[in-house]
Amino acid sequence: MQAKKRRTGEVPIITAKQAVSLIGDGDCVYFGGSAGVAIPELIIDALRDVHSEQGSPKNLMLVGTVAIGDWATTGFNKLAAPGLVRRVVASGLNNCPALGRRALANEIEAYTLPQGVLAQLARENAAGRPGVITKVGLRTFADPRIGGCRQSERSKEDMVAVVDIEGEEHLLYKTFPIQVAILRGSIADEKGNISLEDEAYVGESMSIAAAARRSGGIVIVQVKRVAASNTLNQREVRIPGVLVDYLVVDPNQRQTYATEYSPAYAGKMRVPDGKIASLPFDVRKVIARRAALELTPGATVNIGYGISNGIAVVAAEEGIYRSVTLTAEQGVIGGIPAPGQDAGAGTNYDMIAPQPDQFDFYDGGGLDIAFLSSAEVDRHGNVNVSRFGDKIIGPGGFINISQGARKVVFSGTLTAAGLKAVPGDGSLIIAEEGTVKKWVKDVYQITFSGAFAKERQQEVVFITERAVFKLTPNGLMLTEVAPGVSVEEDVLANIEFDVLVSPDLKLMDARIFKNEPMNLAVRFHDGAGQGEGERLT
After folding, report:
1. What is the dihedral of CA 343, 439, 112, 93, to 10 degrees?
2. What is the DSSP string of 101-113?
3. Predicted local confidence at residue 536, as pLDDT
4. pLDDT bracket for residue 306 (50, 70, 90)
5. What number of other Cβ atoms are within 10 A of residue 180's Cβ?
6. Which residues is 535 bridged to in the sheet?
7. How far is residue 28's CA from residue 132's CA, in Å, rounded to a whole number?
8. CB-based contact 304:398 (threshold 8 Å)
9. Which uninterrupted H or E stretch holds 17?
10. At residue 495, does pLDDT exceed 50?
11. 111 to each of 90, 170, 276, 348, how far by Cα in Å?
């Protein structure tokens, strides 16, 4: 399809409801933003309201590179009304459980693609290429021989295919036309040039806009304010006016769902180390502390969402975060990736990269270590984070990150649902065992393939609050156990399959279980004693 020609002059400023009136029934609507960061919420509100009032637009294909919402009521959660959405395509549905429930009930088509693939797909789409060709997703549920990214039975279209290139298997994730792109910026000038100077996220905004333009679609950008033409700092402009058709102004636009505005997130100030909030002393911190022992000086690492996110805070508490380069898949490089509902933002960073560029770096092996969470682990070393129980989560950036890093550290509690584990005085007490076992014979959905990791000789470590395991050529092996914990009763009895026990089994470092600094910086640079405890005899 030929890209439509851009009219000249000032870009029209319209209301959010007028913007929604430009969306046709059945259109593909691509929203920018990540989780709760840089979301064009005013237009989402208008889409919900107009559909409620008029029954149209309807049957939309709704796309977001990252799951959009606050896990409760915002973002895509507002677009779960019957008839509004026909298909959703995103890297996750965890932030928008209302839409996830529609997919779980097989009421809509749902595809969860790897986050990096979706980010890169926007760029390939803009360039007129047929899709993203990559090995990312092979042997996982993204592989069409296993699931093809589908999360509901009515999802029949093949959005990914296996292709052979010079005798090697790859996956082709296919591009699709975009009728409407809805993005967000900080300031627009009268010509439609968009500055992201107050945003905590760059994403792939220009690629989405260019892809919509190539499809003959329209581009609408929500901003906080409008400036006169030719007054913006050119280096802050990330979406050129030539790609923008309409502006919607929201003077009450928040930087994230959780934060009205942080100059640190915008890169306009650095936060003193003493002002970085610490973590409460609980099992989540215990796991993050043990994972932090895997850090090495000069390492470039990814800090995932969930329990793993606490590693960045521990590194800051221990004064070692400047000795490594922490990154987040949304584009943060250096500094401290933000936790919780601000995930995707960061403080004291070196730069925020466009998201496709960040994933190019990840896919190309740029990460020394990836710290990721785990929901289920099975006897083959497979990990599931994308679907379990009554929830469709999606992979987010997990597949790109876990397959691209040289070393992967998975973190999570050994059991769930009611677990009460109490750290203190250098040991761990299991006061009440969780009723749900997370280490199962076979995971529900493969988000990480243990067999594929072994073929590529990837180093894989599993950290829980009470034990540490490694993936070996012969299977999973228990290598460390927490002081105060029984190997047989507290560890092996809570795993649904047999694991190897190392003949060199050690105690986890007692410092992890004490409510005081571990003083990692003292011995960090020589690497002495990191990740090791007393040997069990």
Report:
1. -50
2. HHHHTTSSEEEE-
3. 65
4. confident
5. 23
6. 506
7. 19
8. yes
9. helix 16-20
10. yes
11. 7, 19, 37, 35
Q: What's phi and psi for 389, nearest 5 deg?
A: 55, -130
Single out the catalytic residue among 329, 376, 465, 480. 329
Backbone dihedral region for residue 463 (phi beyond 0: left; psi -120 to 50: alpha; all else: beta): beta
Phi/psi region, residue 108 (left: phi>0; alpha: psi -120 to 50; beta: rest), is beta
β partners of residue 90: 64, 112
- pTM: predicted TM-score of the whole model, two decimal places: 0.94
Model confidence at 1, in pLDDT bands (50, 70, 90)? very low
Q: At a CB cut-off of 8 Å and minimum separation 6, what does 278 contact?
A: 313, 317
Inter-residue contact 102 to 70 (CB < 8 Å): no
Cα(79)–Cα(517) distance, rounded to whole angstroms? 45
Q: Which of 244, 263, 124 is nearest to 184 (CA)?
A: 244
The Cα 443–Cα 420 span in angstroms is 24
Compute the average pLDDT of residues 191-205: 97
Q: Is 201 left (phi over 0), alpha (psi -120 to 50) or beta?
A: beta
Please name the residue ranges forming H helices in 137-243: 205-214
Supply φ then ψ for residue 60, to 5 degrees. -80, 150
Please indicate whether residue 488 is annotated as part of the active site. Answer: no
Q: Are 11 and 183 in contact (CB under 8 A)?
A: no
Per the CB < 8 A criterion, the answer to whether 327 and 304 are in contact is no
Q: What is the pLDDT of residues 318-341, one digit of tens each?
A: 999 999 999 999 999 999 998 888
Stretch (H or E) spanning 133: strand 131-134
**Cβ atoms < 10 Å from Cβ of 506:** 16
C-alpha angle 242-247-250 in degrees, rounded to nearest 5: 145
Q: What is the DSSP string of 318-349?
A: TT-GGGSEEE-TTSEESSEE--GGGBTBEES-
Residue 302: phi and psi, rounded to 5, are -105, 135
Residue type, 391: K
CA distance 534 to 537: 9
**Through-space distance between the first and last CA atoms of the chain, rounded to whole angstroms:** 70
Cα dihedral: 79, 84, 89, 93 (round 10): 30
Beta bridge partners of 68: 35
Find where tokens 């989402």 sit.
44
Q: What does the CA dihedral 84, 216, 69, 140 come to, rounded to 10 degrees? A: 100
